Amino acid sequence: MIRCHCGAVSFRAVLPKPLAVDVCHCSECQRQSSSAFGISAVFPVEGMLPFAEDLQPHVGMWTRKTDSGRTLECYFCKTCGVRLIHRGLLPDGSSSQTLTVKGGCMENLSLDGARHIYTRSARVPVPEGSCSRPPDQY
């Protein structure tokens, strides 16, 4: 189950487990999470977006440019402000095939096998051998 802090937005993921879990140490994730890193679970876009009609009035979205020049859609609960999902748009405006769900919104998310990404700006020690290349959706 995916749920914001206040419960106004609650829905199930399209898969029982994410395709991958990323622990992102970039400065944007640090700022967004108000922490040393952000945790994101990767899912296919298909079946996750658009939000169900009954949830749409509760979800807001804003966009920002990434360092790679792509656009990132940031979906959040309009009531409590919790960030829920990020979806990358390719330079031609089409959607990436995957999106990320913010880890703190997911029940029982396992960090086993999580990939540490954008570690250049890490504020905490990164476990040796756990780094990976940045995902293409950012």
Can you tell me about this structure?
This protein is mainly beta. It is 5% helix and 35% strand. A hairpin with a 5-residue loop joins strand 7 and strand 8. Belongs to the Gfa family. It holds the Pfam family GFA. This is CENP-V/GFA domain-containing protein. Keywords: Lyase, Metal-binding, Zinc.
Could you provide a short overview of the structure?
With 138 residues, the chain is mainly beta. Helices cover 5% and strands 35% of the residues.
For the structure shown, list the relevant keywords.
138 residues; mainly beta; Metal Binding Protein, Guanine Nucleotide Exchange Factor, Chain A; two-stranded antiparallel sheet; 1 helix; 9 strands; 5% helix; globular
Quickly give the structural class: mainly beta
Shape: globular
Distance between the termini: 24 Å
According to CATH, the fold-level topology is Metal Binding Protein, Guanine Nucleotide Exchange Factor, Chain A
The biggest beta sheet reads: 7 strands, mixed
Q: Which CATH architecture? A: Beta Complex
Q: What do the pLDDT scores average to?
A: 88
Number of separate helices: 1
Radius of gyration: 14 Å
- Reading off the top of the CATH hierarchy, the class is best stated as Mainly Beta
Number of strands: 9
**Biggest sheet, spatial arrangement of strands:** 5-6-7-8-4-3-9
Fraction in helix: under 10%
The residue ranges in which pLDDT falls below 50 over 5 or more consecutive positions are none
Count of domain modules? 1
**SS strand fraction:** 25-35%
Helix-strand pattern, N to C? EEEHEEEEEE
Keywords: Lyase, Metal-binding, Zinc
Protein name: CENP-V/GFA domain-containing protein
GO molecular function: carbon-sulfur lyase activity; metal ion binding
Family: Belongs to the Gfa family.
